[in-house]
């Protein structure tokens, strides 16, 4: 395994997919039309191009621990991260219309955030030793706060998130059928919180206000393979399947094209 497995994979790619991919690269070079900026987790089980059946040139993909997009207030000129740079490159420079945040079940980053959510600030020394914990505490703090609201209602009350502009809001019922663990509920809350964070950047405001950029949330259950789309009409994550697809398509075509 390890590097040996990677090198064997490279050889298999050369013998099977390389020729086709080079032709696809040539098409994209001459006429690039990426459809989305896709934020997701770095978890090795997350294969977004596979479960969305997308191909070369279809998406800009940004991955990190916990599919977090830092809020603009936490990204001054002295602390720029990849995520807002990717938003600018995708939506402002390349004119991409759709930004998608995709969380997932059994997310190790969200499991850790759940474990740390009630820790006091005496953690500061420990955070200095752990970039992961510092990243989660700094940029997952708002998600943990929203989750605390959910806990207080015994996971019954809806949450309110800011949408494309400060004056727009959407309501979210998190796991109303109580199918998932607390950690997975936090993961869903966190996924929606990133939409609010994306809208916090000044350079995104014009596109979001004028309907030139749209923000969406997906959530992947890695143990069933089911993909959930957050429906603002239905106010919850809805399983994308044969029974629900027509209604979801109607919503997307009505509001996001």
From TrEMBL:
<feature type="binding site">
    <location>
        <position position="107"/>
    </location>
    <ligand>
        <name>Zn(2+)</name>
    </ligand>
</feature>
<dbReference type="GO" id="GO:0004089">
    <property type="term" value="F:carbonate dehydratase activity"/>
</dbReference>
<dbReference type="InterPro" id="IPR001765">
    <property type="entry name" value="Carbonic_anhydrase"/>
</dbReference>
<dbReference type="InterPro" id="IPR036874">
    <property type="entry name" value="Carbonic_anhydrase_sf"/>
</dbReference>
<protein>
    <recommendedName>
        <fullName>Carbonic anhydrase</fullName>
        <ecNumber>4.2.1.1</ecNumber>
    </recommendedName>
</protein>
<keyword id="KW-0456">Lyase</keyword>
<comment type="similarity">
    <text>Belongs to the beta-class carbonic anhydrase family.</text>
</comment>
<keyword id="KW-0479">Metal-binding</keyword>
<dbReference type="Pfam" id="PF00484">
    <property type="entry name" value="Pro_CA"/>
</dbReference>
<feature type="binding site">
    <location>
        <position position="104"/>
    </location>
    <ligand>
        <name>Zn(2+)</name>
    </ligand>
</feature>
<keyword id="KW-0862">Zinc</keyword>
<feature type="binding site">
    <location>
        <position position="41"/>
    </location>
    <ligand>
        <name>Zn(2+)</name>
    </ligand>
</feature>
<comment type="function">
    <text>Reversible hydration of carbon dioxide.</text>
</comment>
<dbReference type="GO" id="GO:0008270">
    <property type="term" value="F:zinc ion binding"/>
</dbReference>
<feature type="binding site">
    <location>
        <position position="43"/>
    </location>
    <ligand>
        <name>Zn(2+)</name>
    </ligand>
</feature>
């Amino acid at each position: 395994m390890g590097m040996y497995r990677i090198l064997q994979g490279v050889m298999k790619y050369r013998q099977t997919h390389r020729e086709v991919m080079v032709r696809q690269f040539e098409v994209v070079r001459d006429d690039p039309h990426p459809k989305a900026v896709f934020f997701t987790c770095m978890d090795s089980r997350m294969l977004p191009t596979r479960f969305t059946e997308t191909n070369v040139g279809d998406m800009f993909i940004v991955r990190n621990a916990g599919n977090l997009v830092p809020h603009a207030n936490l990204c001054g000129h002295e602390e720029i991260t990849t995520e807002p740079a990717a938003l600018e490159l995708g939506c402002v420079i390349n004119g991409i219309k759709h930004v998608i945040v995709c969380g997932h079940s059994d997310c190790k980053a969200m499991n850790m955030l759940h474990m740390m959510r009630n820790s006091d600030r005496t953690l500061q020394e420990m955070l200095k030793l752990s970039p992961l914990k510092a990243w989660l505490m700094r940029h997952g703090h708002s998600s943990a706060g929203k989750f605390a609201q959910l806990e207080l209602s015994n996971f019954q009350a809806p949450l309110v998130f800011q949408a494309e502009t400060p004056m727009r809001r959407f309501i979210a019922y998190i796991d109303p059928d109580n199918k998932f663990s607390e950690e997975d509920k936090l993961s869903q809350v966190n996924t929606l919180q990133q939409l609010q964070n994306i809208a916090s950047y000044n350079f995104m405001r014009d596109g979001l206000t004028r309907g030139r950029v749209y923000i969406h949330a997906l959530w992947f259950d890695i143990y069933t393979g089911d993909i959930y789309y957050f429906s603002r009409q239905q106010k919850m994550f809805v399983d994308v399947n044969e029974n629900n697809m027509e209604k979801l398509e109607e919503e997307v075509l009505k509001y996001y094209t």
